[in-house]
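Q: Joint fold for the lines below.
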Amino acid sequence: AQTVTQSQPEMSVQEAETVTLSCTYDTSESDYYLFWYKQPPSRQMILVIRQEAYKQQNATENRFSVNFQKAAKSFSLKISDSQLGDAAMYFCAYRSWRKLVFGKGTKLTVNP
Amino acid sequence: EAEVAQSPRYKITEKSQAVAFWCDPISGHATLYWYRQILGQGPELLVQFQDESVVDDSQLPKDRFSAERLKGVDSTLKIQPAELGDSAMYLCASSVPGSNLYEQYFGPGTRLTVT
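A: Joint structure:
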């Protein structure tokens, strides 16, 4: 079964600084997709960024970028120029044809 | 912008009582998901619908949980009887079926507390 591991239960960053959230996954499949979701307090979960496993180029969405290392099964999220609104739970997720599997999440605190 | 609607937002119930949650997906989204998110963990899929048909309910505790999507639009998740361990956030999500690139859109969730 596929598993997703987020080894950092909590992280903090100063406003305007950069932070990297870690994620590793375990799978024997070759075709899959990886996602980072953001869940602000008392608000719905939203997709931050996605990566197709067959693409070598790392995905980027404005201040959010990923470092996808397929051989190492690693998928980290980098947030640049952190803003107060980035404070949230961040979930790494793996998707094959079957279903979406989430990690346990990393709580990000942004300090002013 | 279209959103997934869920109600109620919060529910407190006593153990052994019945409880029901409602979800209205984004219009046109044929795939609907119910997730359970225990505090401090990521969401876990309970059941997935494609239109009105269940395509995955392998993690649904069928002795007490049931889900339906009779007309292939909105959906209801029921727990009867509720147990203390059912306290969690229940999330509904919807998507357009197709490639794995499709994004799941999540609702705000129903926070269930069983006393």
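Q: Anything notable?
A: The two ends of chain A are 41 Å apart (CA to CA). Chain A touches chain B at residues 4, 32-33, 42-47, 50, 52, 91, 93, 95-100, 102-105 (CB under 8 Å).
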